[in-house]
């Protein structure tokens, strides 16, 4: 058979697999604490409270003097939002733990069975809800044993991916209304070259109360484009109620839209004036997810710059496949060799 060579061109930030396969469906669940959440935190230069070193874990503790900052916390790792090496004194060689506090809301205990805590950590941590210890990971002692501020994690643990921990027996720790999540995260030693802590807390049996958000846009925020007659929108979960008039381009509604589920949704419009182009959403948009009680999209604003004289971005060969046997097939069903171009 005559060999053929196929080219798959993928524009912007979408990868081919995302376009072909879409995003995974998000199951019904209640996100109590999301990743990249804002926390009250204190560096472990001394115990977080005195004379009772455990009182900082309780809901009525006054943490107004603590710093508010976003996760992930750490140093020596990529993707941090609070880099502890940039503070004086830096974490390395000066302290081995941090104290974290955050409240979360529980509407009802009727369906409460367990929570799932997902964490990216290096090297260990302990979790309390309303002062009750509910999880201890890579730390010495038994449940309830006090761990002093100068203690280290038991062994090194590299933060390669999020790990899930089921909290099965929390009915006696959680209350309806406001709850207090307290965490003490530890490094393996004061001389360790890195440290990171990030987490989310989910009720897998609770109702979905999280509104859909934008997963990505093309053009991306802050980008410079030479022409602009459409944008591609990808949501983080399947949605309905999308109308062309929902998207505003410099205040004017888009003229048409096509797409379904999570997207991409392609909005088309007349090319705006050269310069900054602001995208926003109509206040009375009906975009919502497919939860039993739908959660409505909250909108947002982003912008890019339209400049017909901007230099062209280089085209990059982002992937190639030779001797194709089980990968993508061409329009004739043949297993051709191929490359993927990205610009």
- Give the total of beta strands: 26
The poorly predicted ranges are 1-26
Helix content: under 10%
Shape: globular
CATH architectural label of the largest domain: Sandwich
Distance between the termini: 32 Å
* Separate helix tally: 1
**The CATH H-level homologous superfamily of the largest domain:** Galactose-binding domain-like
- As a percent range, the share of strand residues is 35-45%
Structural class: mainly beta
Number of domains: 3
Q: How would you sum up this structure, described in words?
A:
The chain is an all-beta fold. The chain has three domains: 5-9 and 314-342, no CATH class; 12-26 and 210-306, Immunoglobulin-like; 30-203, Jelly Rolls (Sandwich), CATH 2.60.120.260. Helices cover 2% and strands 38% of the residues. The strands form six sheets. Strands 2, 5, 6, 8, 11 and 13 form a six-stranded mixed beta sheet that branches. Strands 4-3-7-12-9-10 form a six-stranded antiparallel beta sheet, with no helix packed on it. Strands 15-24-22-18-19 form a five-stranded mixed beta sheet, with no helix packed on it. A hairpin with a 6-residue loop joins strand 20 (256-258) and strand 21 (265-268). The model is unreliable at 1-26 (pLDDT under 50).
């Amino acid at each position: 058979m005559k060999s053929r060579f196929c080219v798959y061109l993928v524009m912007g930030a979408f990868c081919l697999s995302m376009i072909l396969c879409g995003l995974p469906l998000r199951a019904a669940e209640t996100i109590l604490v999301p990743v990249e959440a804002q926390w009250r935190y204190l560096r472990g230069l001394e115990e977080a409270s005195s004379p009772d070193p455990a009182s900082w874990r309780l809901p009525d503790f006054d943490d107004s003097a603590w710093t508010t900052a976003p996760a992930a916390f750490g140093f020596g790792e990529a993707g941090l939002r609070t880099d502890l090496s940039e503070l004086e004194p830096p974490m390395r060689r000066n302290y081995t733990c941090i104290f974290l506090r955050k409240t979360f809301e529980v509407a009802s205990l009727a369906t409460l069975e367990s929570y799932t805590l997902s964490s990216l950590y290096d090297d260990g941590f302990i979790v309390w809800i309303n002062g009750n210890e509910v999880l201890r990971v890579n730390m010495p002692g038994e449940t309830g044993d006090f761990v002093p501020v100068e203690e280290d994690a038991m062994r090194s643990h590299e933060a390669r991916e999020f790990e899930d921990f089921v909290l099965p027996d929390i009915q006696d720790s959680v209350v309806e209304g406001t709850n207090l999540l307290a965490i003490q995260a530890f490094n393996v030693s004061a001389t360790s070259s890195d440290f990171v802590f990030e987490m989310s807390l989910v009720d897998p049996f609770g109702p979905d109360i999280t509104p859909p958000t934008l997963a990505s846009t093309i053009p991306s925020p802050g980008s410079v484009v030479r022409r602009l007659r459409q944008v591609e929108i990808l949501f983080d979960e399947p949605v309905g109620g999308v109308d062309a008039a929902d998207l505003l381009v410099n205040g004017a509604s888009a003229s048409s839209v096509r797409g379904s589920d999570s997207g991409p949704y392609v909005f088309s419009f007349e090319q705006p004036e050269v310069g900054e182009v602001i995208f926003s959403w109509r206040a009375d948009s009906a975009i919502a997810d497919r939860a039993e009680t739908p959660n409505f999209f909250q909108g947002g604003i982003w912008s890019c710059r339209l400049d017909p004289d901007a230099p062209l971005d280089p085209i990059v060969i982002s992937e190639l496949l030779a001797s194709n046997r089980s990968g993508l097939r061409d329009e004739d069903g043949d297993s051709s060799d191929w490359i993927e171009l990205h610009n």
